Please model this.
Amino acid sequence: MSTDAFNAREFRDALSSFATGVTVVTCLDSNGEPVGATASSFNSVSMDPPLILWSITKTAYSADAFINAKHFIVNVLSAEQVDISNKFARSGIDKFADVVVEPGIGGVPILPGSITCFECEAWATYDGGDHEIIVGQVKGLRSAVGSGLVFYRGAYATAEAIPTLASVESNDVSHFIDNYLLYFMSRATHQMGEEFHQLVVDDGLTTKEWRVLACLYNENSMSLADLSKRTMVDQATLLELSMDLQKQNMARVQHLDAGTKITGTGVGQERVEHLIKECQTAESNALEGLDSGAAETLKAMLKRIIKNTD
Model:
């Protein structure tokens, strides 16, 4: 459709039907003085890296400060901050007068009371017609509980979650999953291991390599079949992985008449020694609140389940 089909007023009215959150974006100008502007043009751009954008009118008094700023902060306003929104939307006044702020990234002011603050490093700017589009990489987050301030059809509103059917149903309703042992085991395993396994990856090992080296710790020796059960890795993949560890002197692979045997080495033990300690710490944290007897009973029960399902 040609823009001749509508005028600027009609376009603005149409845009107002899209409810937007209200933010105040802050930065420091070239003299290190705080600058702030109310903006509803905030939006997300990317998760990896974490990028957001907002836009400012090119004719705005503070446009140059924001375009040239190395850092800026998007303060997402709460429903109680209508006065702050109005104040920072005005021009020709000292917007920070009587406003208590906290220093954020690069010394940029943070507005306390905001429900979320995105602390950003300037990423890029783009021409957007009569606006300048400013993209920032999020370097820090601060969040609080509260209702957000919304602008809709030229007026302020509040953002509240709409209750779903599940949230209004009686809490007495029993679900199959709530009493299913495998669900609890899977969830506990996932939650207990998620953070630790990230440590393994950050340390430069795959989870499969970690399992193998942990099983071979103290230079243990195991058949390929037994190690496959212990590590939950199929034998073909395990053999290939073990051969690669042998090249790094972290395991020894022997092809015997009785079958293939994998043995740990001192190098392999040293490679995962610190991870063993991290693993033990993760276990201790997960078992917090259980006495030693209960923990041992739990392990014995799980061993029985493993034997029954082998």
In short: Residues 71 and 265 are 50 Å apart (CA to CA).
